[in-house]
Amino acid sequence: MDEGKAYPMNDGTNQGFGMPTPPQAAGQPQGAGQAQAADRPQNGQPQTAGQPASFQPQAFQPYQQPGYAQPQAAPAAGFAAPVAPAAQVAAAPAKQSHSGLIALGIVAAAIVLIFGIGAASCSAAIGSLSSIGSAGDASSLSTYGDSVAVITMSGTIGYDGSACSPEGLRAALKSVEADDDIKAVVLRVNSGGGTSTAGEEMSQLIAGFDKPIVVSSASINCSAAYEISSQADYIYVNHSTAIGAIGTIMQTYDASELLDKLGIKVNSIASAESKDSSYGTRPLTDEEREYYQNLVSQINAQFVSSVASGRGMSVAQVQELATGMEFTGDDAVANGLADEIGTYDDALAKAAELGGIKGDFDVVDADPSRSDLASLLGISGSTKVSISADDLAAALAKLDEAHTVR
Protein backbone atom coordinates (compact mmCIF):
# COMPACT_ATOMS: atom_id res chain seq x y z
CA MET A 1 0.00 0.00 0.00
CA ASP A 2 1.26 3.42 -0.91
CA GLU A 3 1.16 5.53 2.27
CA GLY A 4 1.20 8.72 0.19
CA LYS A 5 -2.24 8.13 -1.36
CA ALA A 6 -5.50 8.99 0.35
CA TYR A 7 -7.77 5.92 0.27
CA PRO A 8 -11.42 6.36 1.11
CA MET A 9 -12.28 5.17 4.62
CA ASN A 10 -15.96 5.32 5.53
CA ASP A 11 -16.59 5.17 9.25
CA GLY A 12 -20.06 6.72 8.97
CA THR A 13 -19.06 10.10 10.36
CA ASN A 14 -19.39 12.41 7.35
CA GLN A 15 -16.01 13.96 8.20
CA GLY A 16 -12.98 14.63 6.00
CA PHE A 17 -11.32 11.27 6.68
CA GLY A 18 -14.41 9.20 6.04
CA MET A 19 -15.61 10.76 2.74
CA PRO A 20 -14.57 9.58 -0.77
CA THR A 21 -12.01 11.79 -2.42
CA PRO A 22 -13.80 14.10 -4.85
CA PRO A 23 -12.40 14.46 -8.36
CA GLN A 24 -9.96 17.29 -8.82
CA ALA A 25 -11.11 20.04 -11.09
CA ALA A 26 -8.78 21.24 -13.75
CA GLY A 27 -6.39 23.83 -12.47
CA GLN A 28 -7.40 23.23 -8.89
CA PRO A 29 -4.42 23.21 -6.53
CA GLN A 30 -3.47 19.83 -5.17
CA GLY A 31 -3.68 19.01 -1.51
CA ALA A 32 -0.53 18.52 0.48
CA GLY A 33 -1.01 14.77 0.49
CA GLN A 34 -1.29 14.60 -3.30
CA ALA A 35 1.83 16.67 -3.84
CA GLN A 36 3.86 14.47 -1.56
CA ALA A 37 2.59 11.32 -3.27
CA ALA A 38 3.79 12.70 -6.60
CA ASP A 39 7.22 13.47 -5.27
CA ARG A 40 7.82 10.18 -3.46
CA PRO A 41 8.45 7.93 -6.54
CA GLN A 42 10.95 10.41 -7.80
CA ASN A 43 13.25 10.60 -4.84
CA GLY A 44 12.53 7.15 -3.39
CA GLN A 45 13.17 8.46 0.10
CA PRO A 46 10.69 8.06 2.92
CA GLN A 47 9.33 11.22 4.41
CA THR A 48 11.24 12.32 7.50
CA ALA A 49 9.86 13.34 10.83
CA GLY A 50 10.51 16.92 9.88
CA GLN A 51 7.92 16.68 7.09
CA PRO A 52 4.65 15.67 8.78
CA ALA A 53 2.45 17.81 6.55
CA SER A 54 0.53 14.79 5.21
CA PHE A 55 -0.61 13.92 8.75
CA GLN A 56 -1.73 17.42 9.82
CA PRO A 57 -5.51 18.05 9.98
CA GLN A 58 -5.17 21.06 7.61
CA ALA A 59 -4.11 18.68 4.86
CA PHE A 60 -7.79 17.74 4.45
CA GLN A 61 -9.24 21.24 4.57
CA PRO A 62 -9.71 21.35 0.75
CA TYR A 63 -12.47 18.75 1.17
CA GLN A 64 -14.56 21.11 3.26
CA GLN A 65 -16.41 22.31 0.19
CA PRO A 66 -19.83 23.96 0.29
CA GLY A 67 -21.43 20.73 -0.80
CA TYR A 68 -20.04 18.88 2.20
CA ALA A 69 -21.08 21.63 4.57
CA GLN A 70 -24.77 21.10 3.83
CA PRO A 71 -25.23 18.23 6.35
CA GLN A 72 -24.45 20.78 9.08
CA ALA A 73 -27.93 22.17 8.57
CA ALA A 74 -29.39 19.03 10.18
CA PRO A 75 -27.52 19.52 13.48
CA ALA A 76 -28.50 23.18 13.40
CA ALA A 77 -32.11 22.17 13.10
CA GLY A 78 -31.58 19.60 15.82
CA PHE A 79 -30.42 22.28 18.23
CA ALA A 80 -33.76 23.96 17.83
CA ALA A 81 -35.57 20.83 19.14
CA PRO A 82 -35.20 21.73 22.85
CA VAL A 83 -37.64 24.58 22.23
CA ALA A 84 -40.51 22.13 22.82
CA PRO A 85 -39.48 21.32 26.43
CA ALA A 86 -39.16 25.05 27.05
CA ALA A 87 -42.74 25.44 25.94
CA GLN A 88 -43.76 22.70 28.34
CA VAL A 89 -42.02 24.50 31.19
CA ALA A 90 -43.81 27.68 30.27
CA ALA A 91 -47.11 25.82 30.41
CA ALA A 92 -46.39 24.46 33.90
CA PRO A 93 -48.22 27.28 35.74
CA ALA A 94 -51.44 26.07 34.14
CA LYS A 95 -50.97 22.67 35.81
CA GLN A 96 -50.24 24.33 39.15
CA SER A 97 -53.39 26.38 38.81
CA HIS A 98 -55.38 23.22 38.12
CA SER A 99 -53.85 21.53 41.19
CA GLY A 100 -54.67 24.59 43.24
CA LEU A 101 -58.31 24.32 42.23
CA ILE A 102 -58.35 20.68 43.31
CA ALA A 103 -56.79 21.57 46.67
CA LEU A 104 -59.30 24.38 47.10
CA GLY A 105 -62.09 21.93 46.40
CA ILE A 106 -60.77 19.54 49.03
CA VAL A 107 -60.56 22.34 51.60
CA ALA A 108 -64.10 23.42 50.74
CA ALA A 109 -65.33 19.85 51.17
CA ALA A 110 -63.60 19.63 54.54
CA ILE A 111 -65.24 22.88 55.63
CA VAL A 112 -68.64 21.56 54.59
CA LEU A 113 -67.99 18.36 56.56
CA ILE A 114 -66.98 20.31 59.65
CA PHE A 115 -70.10 22.45 59.43
CA GLY A 116 -72.16 19.30 59.02
CA ILE A 117 -70.73 17.92 62.24
CA GLY A 118 -71.19 21.30 63.87
CA ALA A 119 -74.89 21.24 63.01
CA ALA A 120 -75.20 18.08 65.09
CA SER A 121 -73.17 19.41 67.99
CA CYS A 122 -73.61 23.16 67.89
CA SER A 123 -74.15 23.44 71.63
CA ALA A 124 -70.82 21.68 72.06
CA ALA A 125 -69.26 24.49 70.05
CA ILE A 126 -70.78 27.02 72.45
CA GLY A 127 -69.27 25.10 75.36
CA SER A 128 -65.88 25.10 73.69
CA LEU A 129 -65.88 28.81 72.95
CA SER A 130 -67.09 29.79 76.40
CA SER A 131 -64.66 27.51 78.22
CA ILE A 132 -61.58 29.47 77.22
CA GLY A 133 -60.23 30.88 80.46
CA SER A 134 -58.78 29.90 83.79
CA ALA A 135 -59.49 26.66 85.61
CA GLY A 136 -61.75 28.52 87.98
CA ASP A 137 -64.17 29.63 85.25
CA ALA A 138 -67.40 27.72 84.79
CA SER A 139 -67.89 26.49 81.24
CA SER A 140 -70.99 25.12 79.56
CA LEU A 141 -71.18 21.48 78.56
CA SER A 142 -72.71 19.64 75.63
CA THR A 143 -76.14 18.41 76.72
CA TYR A 144 -79.32 17.56 74.81
CA GLY A 145 -81.60 16.59 77.66
CA ASP A 146 -81.33 14.66 80.90
CA SER A 147 -77.66 13.90 81.48
CA VAL A 148 -75.15 12.44 83.90
CA ALA A 149 -71.75 14.13 84.06
CA VAL A 150 -68.55 12.17 84.55
CA ILE A 151 -65.50 13.63 86.30
CA THR A 152 -62.38 11.48 86.10
CA MET A 153 -60.03 11.74 89.06
CA SER A 154 -56.98 9.69 88.07
CA GLY A 155 -53.54 10.36 89.52
CA THR A 156 -52.00 11.97 92.57
CA ILE A 157 -54.10 14.39 94.59
CA GLY A 158 -52.34 17.75 94.55
CA TYR A 159 -52.40 21.15 92.92
CA ASP A 160 -51.86 20.58 89.19
CA GLY A 161 -55.11 22.11 87.92
CA SER A 162 -56.60 18.78 86.83
CA ALA A 163 -59.59 17.01 88.33
CA CYS A 164 -57.13 15.70 90.96
CA SER A 165 -56.77 19.22 92.34
CA PRO A 166 -59.13 21.58 94.17
CA GLU A 167 -59.02 24.08 91.30
CA GLY A 168 -59.83 21.53 88.60
CA LEU A 169 -62.56 19.81 90.60
CA ARG A 170 -64.13 23.16 91.48
CA ALA A 171 -64.23 24.16 87.80
CA ALA A 172 -65.82 20.85 86.80
CA LEU A 173 -68.46 21.06 89.51
CA LYS A 174 -69.31 24.63 88.54
CA SER A 175 -69.87 23.50 84.96
CA VAL A 176 -72.18 20.74 86.15
CA GLU A 177 -74.02 23.03 88.53
CA ALA A 178 -74.67 25.59 85.79
CA ASP A 179 -76.33 23.06 83.46
CA ASP A 180 -79.90 22.20 84.39
CA ASP A 181 -79.86 19.18 82.07
CA ILE A 182 -77.23 17.49 84.23
CA LYS A 183 -79.01 15.74 87.07
CA ALA A 184 -76.14 13.85 88.73
CA VAL A 185 -72.40 13.16 88.64
CA VAL A 186 -70.25 10.04 88.49
CA LEU A 187 -66.82 10.57 90.03
CA ARG A 188 -64.53 7.99 88.44
CA VAL A 189 -61.67 7.49 90.90
CA ASN A 190 -58.32 5.82 90.29
CA SER A 191 -55.92 7.37 92.79
CA GLY A 192 -53.73 6.28 95.67
CA GLY A 193 -53.97 9.62 97.46
CA GLY A 194 -51.68 12.60 97.76
CA THR A 195 -51.48 15.87 99.65
CA SER A 196 -53.65 15.95 102.75
CA THR A 197 -54.54 19.63 102.35
CA ALA A 198 -55.72 19.17 98.76
CA GLY A 199 -57.75 16.15 99.84
CA GLU A 200 -59.38 18.16 102.59
CA GLU A 201 -60.37 20.96 100.19
CA MET A 202 -61.73 18.58 97.59
CA SER A 203 -63.74 16.57 100.13
CA GLN A 204 -65.44 19.79 101.18
CA LEU A 205 -66.31 20.56 97.54
CA ILE A 206 -67.96 17.16 97.17
CA ALA A 207 -69.78 17.43 100.49
CA GLY A 208 -71.20 20.84 99.61
CA PHE A 209 -72.40 19.93 96.12
CA ASP A 210 -76.18 19.87 95.68
CA LYS A 211 -76.55 17.31 92.89
CA PRO A 212 -76.08 13.58 93.63
CA ILE A 213 -72.55 12.21 93.25
CA VAL A 214 -71.80 8.51 92.79
CA VAL A 215 -68.23 7.19 93.01
CA SER A 216 -67.04 4.51 90.63
CA SER A 217 -63.81 3.07 92.03
CA ALA A 218 -61.31 1.69 89.54
CA SER A 219 -58.20 -0.22 90.66
CA ILE A 220 -57.33 1.98 93.65
CA ASN A 221 -59.17 4.47 95.83
CA CYS A 222 -56.98 5.17 98.85
CA SER A 223 -55.95 7.76 101.41
CA ALA A 224 -56.75 11.34 100.30
CA ALA A 225 -58.67 10.00 97.30
CA TYR A 226 -60.86 8.00 99.65
CA GLU A 227 -61.42 11.03 101.89
CA ILE A 228 -62.83 12.78 98.83
CA SER A 229 -64.89 9.73 97.81
CA SER A 230 -66.33 9.33 101.29
CA GLN A 231 -68.33 12.53 100.80
CA ALA A 232 -70.25 11.13 97.82
CA ASP A 233 -73.80 9.81 98.02
CA TYR A 234 -72.86 6.30 96.93
CA ILE A 235 -69.62 4.36 96.43
CA TYR A 236 -69.15 1.49 94.00
CA VAL A 237 -66.10 -0.77 94.08
CA ASN A 238 -64.89 -3.78 92.15
CA HIS A 239 -64.12 -6.99 94.00
CA SER A 240 -60.38 -6.37 93.64
CA THR A 241 -60.37 -2.62 94.18
CA ALA A 242 -57.83 -1.43 96.77
CA ILE A 243 -59.72 1.07 98.92
CA GLY A 244 -59.32 2.82 102.24
CA ALA A 245 -55.78 3.17 103.59
CA ILE A 246 -57.09 5.78 106.02
CA GLY A 247 -54.09 7.40 107.64
CA THR A 248 -51.57 10.21 107.52
CA ILE A 249 -47.81 10.06 107.18
CA MET A 250 -44.93 12.50 107.37
CA GLN A 251 -41.36 11.45 106.67
CA THR A 252 -37.98 12.87 107.55
CA TYR A 253 -34.61 11.27 106.93
CA ASP A 254 -31.27 11.23 108.69
CA ALA A 255 -28.23 11.15 106.40
CA SER A 256 -25.77 12.40 109.02
CA GLU A 257 -23.78 9.14 109.21
CA LEU A 258 -23.46 9.02 105.44
CA LEU A 259 -22.26 12.62 105.37
CA ASP A 260 -19.66 11.78 108.04
CA LYS A 261 -18.33 8.86 106.01
CA LEU A 262 -18.04 11.10 102.98
CA GLY A 263 -16.27 13.75 105.02
CA ILE A 264 -19.05 16.28 104.43
CA LYS A 265 -19.89 18.69 107.24
CA VAL A 266 -23.08 20.75 107.02
CA ASN A 267 -23.20 24.05 108.87
CA SER A 268 -26.79 25.12 109.57
CA ILE A 269 -27.40 28.76 110.39
CA ALA A 270 -31.03 28.99 111.54
CA SER A 271 -33.24 31.28 113.57
CA ALA A 272 -34.34 28.39 115.81
CA GLU A 273 -32.84 25.11 116.90
CA SER A 274 -35.46 22.95 115.19
CA LYS A 275 -35.54 24.81 111.89
CA ASP A 276 -33.27 22.21 110.30
CA SER A 277 -35.01 19.24 111.92
CA SER A 278 -36.47 17.99 108.64
CA TYR A 279 -33.39 18.63 106.48
CA GLY A 280 -31.85 15.22 107.10
CA THR A 281 -28.49 16.50 108.26
CA ARG A 282 -28.94 15.33 111.87
CA PRO A 283 -31.16 13.00 113.92
CA LEU A 284 -34.42 14.29 115.41
CA THR A 285 -34.46 15.09 119.09
CA ASP A 286 -37.09 13.43 121.24
CA GLU A 287 -38.97 16.71 121.53
CA GLU A 288 -38.99 17.19 117.77
CA ARG A 289 -40.24 13.65 117.15
CA GLU A 290 -43.06 14.16 119.63
CA TYR A 291 -43.97 17.46 117.99
CA TYR A 292 -44.19 15.92 114.53
CA GLN A 293 -46.19 12.99 115.85
CA ASN A 294 -48.75 15.35 117.36
CA LEU A 295 -48.92 17.23 114.05
CA VAL A 296 -49.65 14.04 112.12
CA SER A 297 -52.22 12.89 114.67
CA GLN A 298 -54.06 16.19 114.43
CA ILE A 299 -54.23 16.03 110.64
CA ASN A 300 -55.32 12.40 110.76
CA ALA A 301 -58.07 13.21 113.23
CA GLN A 302 -59.52 15.61 110.70
CA PHE A 303 -59.27 12.85 108.07
CA VAL A 304 -61.14 10.36 110.27
CA SER A 305 -63.78 12.92 111.18
CA SER A 306 -64.35 13.73 107.51
CA VAL A 307 -64.81 10.07 106.59
CA ALA A 308 -67.15 9.49 109.51
CA SER A 309 -69.29 12.44 108.49
CA GLY A 310 -69.41 11.41 104.85
CA ARG A 311 -70.15 7.74 105.49
CA GLY A 312 -72.59 8.26 108.34
CA MET A 313 -70.37 6.35 110.76
CA SER A 314 -69.09 7.19 114.20
CA VAL A 315 -65.57 8.46 114.68
CA ALA A 316 -64.81 5.37 116.73
CA GLN A 317 -65.93 3.10 113.90
CA VAL A 318 -63.74 4.86 111.38
CA GLN A 319 -60.82 5.07 113.80
CA GLU A 320 -60.94 1.32 114.14
CA LEU A 321 -60.56 1.02 110.37
CA ALA A 322 -57.91 3.76 110.15
CA THR A 323 -54.94 1.42 110.29
CA GLY A 324 -53.34 2.86 107.18
CA MET A 325 -54.01 -0.46 105.46
CA GLU A 326 -56.11 -0.86 102.35
CA PHE A 327 -59.09 -3.17 101.97
CA THR A 328 -60.44 -5.14 99.05
CA GLY A 329 -63.73 -4.09 97.54
CA ASP A 330 -65.51 -6.97 99.23
CA ASP A 331 -64.12 -6.08 102.65
CA ALA A 332 -64.95 -2.41 102.15
CA VAL A 333 -68.59 -3.24 101.46
CA ALA A 334 -68.62 -5.40 104.58
CA ASN A 335 -67.07 -2.80 106.90
CA GLY A 336 -69.05 0.16 105.55
CA LEU A 337 -66.38 2.04 103.60
CA ALA A 338 -68.20 1.26 100.33
CA ASP A 339 -71.81 0.59 99.41
CA GLU A 340 -71.86 -1.99 96.66
CA ILE A 341 -69.87 -4.07 94.20
CA GLY A 342 -70.54 -2.63 90.78
CA THR A 343 -69.11 -1.46 87.49
CA TYR A 344 -68.84 1.94 85.87
CA ASP A 345 -72.16 1.33 84.10
CA ASP A 346 -73.77 0.49 87.42
CA ALA A 347 -72.53 3.81 88.77
CA LEU A 348 -74.06 5.66 85.81
CA ALA A 349 -77.40 3.96 86.33
CA LYS A 350 -77.32 4.73 90.06
CA ALA A 351 -76.49 8.38 89.40
CA ALA A 352 -79.42 8.64 86.99
CA GLU A 353 -81.69 7.06 89.60
CA LEU A 354 -80.57 9.44 92.34
CA GLY A 355 -80.94 12.35 89.92
CA GLY A 356 -84.54 11.46 89.18
CA ILE A 357 -83.91 10.56 85.54
CA LYS A 358 -86.47 8.20 84.04
CA GLY A 359 -85.61 6.57 80.74
CA ASP A 360 -82.64 7.34 78.51
CA PHE A 361 -80.00 9.89 79.42
CA ASP A 362 -76.80 11.36 78.06
CA VAL A 363 -73.36 10.90 79.58
CA VAL A 364 -71.29 14.08 79.48
CA ASP A 365 -67.55 14.42 80.07
CA ALA A 366 -67.05 17.19 82.62
CA ASP A 367 -63.30 16.72 83.04
CA PRO A 368 -61.75 20.22 83.17
CA SER A 369 -58.71 19.00 81.22
CA ARG A 370 -60.67 18.02 78.10
CA SER A 371 -59.43 19.74 74.95
CA ASP A 372 -61.38 22.50 73.24
CA LEU A 373 -61.32 20.49 69.98
CA ALA A 374 -62.86 17.50 71.77
CA SER A 375 -65.51 19.80 73.13
CA LEU A 376 -66.13 21.35 69.71
CA LEU A 377 -66.56 17.91 68.15
CA GLY A 378 -68.17 16.73 71.37
CA ILE A 379 -70.45 14.15 69.85
CA SER A 380 -68.11 11.54 71.34
CA GLY A 381 -68.84 12.97 74.77
CA SER A 382 -72.43 11.84 74.53
CA THR A 383 -73.80 8.32 74.45
CA LYS A 384 -76.81 9.40 72.42
CA VAL A 385 -76.38 8.09 68.90
CA SER A 386 -79.08 10.18 67.23
CA ILE A 387 -80.41 13.68 67.86
CA SER A 388 -84.11 14.44 67.68
CA ALA A 389 -85.47 17.38 65.72
CA ASP A 390 -86.47 19.12 68.96
CA ASP A 391 -82.99 18.71 70.40
CA LEU A 392 -81.42 20.09 67.22
CA ALA A 393 -83.82 23.04 67.16
CA ALA A 394 -83.01 23.81 70.79
CA ALA A 395 -79.29 23.60 70.08
CA LEU A 396 -79.60 25.93 67.09
CA ALA A 397 -81.54 28.37 69.22
CA LYS A 398 -78.72 28.32 71.78
CA LEU A 399 -76.19 28.98 69.05
CA ASP A 400 -78.21 31.89 67.67
CA GLU A 401 -78.58 33.34 71.15
CA ALA A 402 -74.85 33.05 71.76
CA HIS A 403 -74.05 34.91 68.56
CA THR A 404 -76.58 37.61 69.46
CA VAL A 405 -74.95 38.14 72.85
CA ARG A 406 -71.53 38.43 71.31
TrEMBL record:
Which residues belong to any copy of the Peptidase S49 domain?
211-356
What EC number(s) does this enzyme carry?
3.4.-.-
UniProt-listed CDD domains: S49_Sppa_N_C (cd07023)
Instruction: Write out the GO biological process terms.
Output: proteolysis
Q: Where is the composition biased (Low complexity)?
A: 24-38, 49-71
Would I find Transmembrane among this entry's keywords?
yes
Question: Could you tell me which Gene3D superfamilies the record lists for this protein?
Answer: 2-enoyl-CoA Hydratase, Chain A, domain 1 (3.90.226.10)
Pfam families under this entry? Peptidase_S49
- Transmembrane spans: 101-120
Region of interest: Disordered:
1-71
Q: Which UniProt keywords apply?
A: Hydrolase, Membrane, Protease, Serine protease, Transmembrane, Transmembrane helix
InterPro entries annotated for this entry? Answer: ClpP/crotonase-like_dom_sf, Pept_S49_SppA, Peptidase_S49, S49_SppA_C
Give GO terms: molecular function aspect only.
Answer: serine-type peptidase activity
Q: Does the keyword Electron transport apply?
A: no
Q: Which family does it belong to?
A: Belongs to the peptidase S49 family.
Name the UniProt record assigns to this protein: Signal peptide peptidase SppA, 36K type
Organism, by scientific name, is Slackia exigua (strain ATCC 700122 / DSM 15923 / CIP 105133 / JCM 11022 / KCTC 5966 / S-7)
Recite the lineage of the species: Bacteria, Bacillati, Actinomycetota, Coriobacteriia, Eggerthellales
Gene label: sppA
